[in-house]
Amino acid sequence: MQWCGYANESRFKAQVQSLMAMVIGGADYTSGRLSTIHVTEADQTGDWAVNDEYTLGVDGRIRSLKRTINIIPEDNSEEQLFVVKNGKAIKQRSVHRELQTGRPTKNTVNWFHASPVITEIKAFPFSALITEKQEDVRSAAEVCIPDRAK
């Protein structure tokens, strides 16, 4: 229903646990500028999780995505690497591994489809928290905005 930003990591972790959030976002700042955006999405049963790490250039644009897809029942982990150029995501590589051993595998999971790659910061449902309201988040215990998708 809403997205909330927390300046305190322990408060953030406590809220994630208590709300049993299925999608979690985060941001890292380097020298005062947004440098990395993290998004984790999981299903309610715990069968799969997708961890996205978007890297931004000094110009504030998304430059790359490292995506890890873990499918527990299939013992499969796929790491994907994308570069973002001219507003388009271009897959550079995809490597599958067994979750339990980490060994490379040729096995793929055909039934799972991850969310599309985001190529602009404003496309994140929580973008206002990491752009316009970032100072509010740093200075307050909690800042929330409505979920645009609802």
List keywords for this structure.
two-stranded antiparallel sheet, mainly beta
How far apart are the first and last residues' alpha carbons, in Å? 6 Å
Give a count of the beta strands, DSSP E runs of length 2 or more. Answer: 8
| Content-based structural category | mainly beta
Question: Helix and strand string, N-terminal first?
Answer: EHEEEEEEHHE
Overall tally of domains = 1
Question: What is the overall silhouette?
Answer: globular
Largest sheet geometry: 6 strands, antiparallel
With strands numbered from the N-terminus, the spatial order across the biggest sheet is 2-3-4-5-6-7
Question: Roughly what fraction of the amino acids lie in strands?
Answer: 35-45%
Report the uncertain regions: none
Question: Rounded to an integer, what's the Rg over CA atoms?
Answer: 16 Å
The number of distinct helices, counting runs of at least 4 residues, comes to 3
Q: What portion of residues is helical? A: 10-25%
Mean pLDDT score:
90
Short description:
The protein has helices spanning 9-19, 127-130, 134-139; strands at residues 2-5, 23-30, 33-42, 48-56, 62-71, 76-85, 88-98, 143-146.
Please give a structural write-up.
This protein is mostly beta strands and 150 residues long. The protein has one domain. The chain is built from 3 helices and 8 strands. The strands form 2 sheets. A 6-stranded antiparallel sheet has the order 2-3-4-5-6-7, with no helix packed on it. Strands 1-8 form a two-stranded antiparallel sheet. A hairpin with a 5-residue loop joins strand 4 and strand 5. The protein is globular and about 50 Å long. The mean pLDDT is 90.
